[in-house]
């Protein structure tokens, strides 16, 4: 056995009551008690354990406040009463950063926030203050939507007299290490995806961190000298945090896993999943099986169909796998693989802070008025391939001008090669090259490509209905199970008022906290 000793410096922890006392902070436009009542009356779809903990929190609150008396000022206790637990108080974080800069020790500041909206808002909030506009500060937002070239600054030690402030999601908990961090501000929230089986929809909400998350965040400080961690939740909340995040298997769709169970001949889907340490709900299992039957991947006896057999051998979600197979069969392979890779991983677009409108405009231009996000990604990817042929400089300029991540585009290219290898091994194509001419006889047929996308993603379709108002002509979008839905703000169709067809096809339907 090899033992590698590690060493970290001590880290002093503060909780919300300590931070408020330190700053003499008073939240604005907040009222805790009506929020409690409102959330209770709304009956939000939350897991039972969480609801029970919220009830315990409410019951223990008066006793907790009583114990604070004498230890903290009356104004701090009053402020705690006013804090809205559902929101991350960015004004408080800005005040805390200012306090650390003016009175704290030197060293980088790392702020943990749940998502892009919070990161961009805090960045704007800091940059609106004269203090942070000076060259004595380097403020680095860390998010997948940001250009990689900007984010490499996070690992560089700033010049003497310059303070580095990093605003990040939970990616900075374990995926990267920033050696010079001395101060960690833990916003207390983390974005989690859950699958609502009752409504057949994914949800993306900001949840409380677990103790494991909080420990990881604390551990980011104290790597080069004694550090400080500011948890922006009170000690009562800390005692009620989960030890760990929910396992992914109980909060995500199960279709891909079900296919693996069948192709590996592990027995019945339900009986196998019930044996797991953290088994998914019966409703989630039944819904996954129903979806696979609807996709014609399983028959009525829950056995793999020929289609199901091939879907199980592809390393993608079944609907995307079906799209890939149709692309191979109908000889429009390369464009379909581009779209499939993007749906499996992520699209290559980035949004630099302060250039959001420019990025949206370039994306709209790349759509070429086709009114399709899928074809917009395809156009962007093909433009990148053309630029690569002209050399490294042309490639860099193309990505810069069109707000594209070259790393993501390279990843999509690699994924396309892997998909083609799977198709070759299965006998669907004769070459592992996505651009093989025999596999791309129909790759210029836009209508066929759209048909393949639809065939793969069906029944994920939405109906477009015109809506006329006195001010302007708009459209409304409906799905069969949800009624009226909204197009995502990043879509090229978000402000579209006229469509050539009455239907839209989508890959992901998600309920967000906004």
Automatic annotation (TrEMBL):
Keywords: ATP-binding, Helicase, Hydrolase, Nucleotide-binding. Residues 96-265 form the Helicase C-terminal domain. Gene3D superfamilies: 1.20.120.1080, P-loop containing nucleotide triphosphate hydrolases. It catalyses: ATP + H2O = ADP + phosphate + H(+). PROSITE patterns: HELICASE_CTER. Its EC number is 3.6.4.13. One of its GO terms (cellular component) is nucleus. The keyword Ribosomal protein does not apply. The keyword Iron does not apply. SMART domains: HA2 (SM00847), HELICc (SM00490). One of its GO terms (molecular function) is G-quadruplex DNA binding. It is an enzyme of class 3 (hydrolase). This is RNA helicase. It comes from Hymenochirus boettgeri (Congo dwarf clawed frog). The lineage of its organism: Eukaryota, Metazoa, Chordata, Craniata, Vertebrata.
